[in-house]
Structures are given as C-alpha cells and as structure tokens.
Amino acid sequence: MYDSSKVAVNMLVSNYARILGEEMKARVNAVCPGLVQTHLTNYIAYGGKPEDGAQRILELATVGDDDETTGTFSDSNGAIPW
Question: How many Å separate Cα 61 from the centre of its chain?
C-alpha cells in the first residue's frame, strides 16, 4: 500500500508541476526530509533535527526567478530520480 501511495504522490507532483507551470509559471516539488525528531515520532533518538529536514524545502522555496527547478523529488541530499 505504501509503494502505491508514494507513486500516486509522485505522479501528482509531476502533473501539478506541468499544469501549474504552464498556466501560472509556478514550480512544484516534493521533499522527503527523512525521519525527523518531532512529537509525531516521539522525538526518536536517531531522527534528524527539524531544521536539517527543512533545509532542502527552504532551498527550493527560495530559488531565484531564473531557476526552473520543478517536478523534482528530493531528500535532504538533493534531487533523486523517480
């Protein structure tokens, strides 16, 4: 079940990136920050810090107007192939 829901999210990101990019010049990307120490994970010891998990999200949210990065899937290390 997890695999199929993951594929569905990836397809949704791809479609939103295509449609919203054409219509509104918007960029759409997905980021998996990994296991992060939050109340949802009961602050699990081997989880990452929230600020580390947010780093890639901030990078993508603050790219310049000349950057055309859209439709990507990233982890904390950067874009990953899908």
Answer: 10
What is the average pLDDT value for the chain, to the nearest integer?
93
Contact 70, 28 (CB under 8 A): yes
- Per mean pLDDT, which range of 2-6, 32-36, 49-53 is the poorest? 2-6
Give the global pTM.
0.82
Cα distances (angstroms) measured from residue 2 to each of 9, 15, 25, 28, 35: 11, 20, 31, 22, 16
| Mean pLDDT confidence for 13-34 | 94
- Cα(75)–Cα(82) distance, rounded to whole angstroms? 12
Closest alpha carbon to 28 in 11, 7, 3, 50: 11
Q: What is the dihedral of CA 56, 3, 1, 9, to 10 degrees?
A: 50
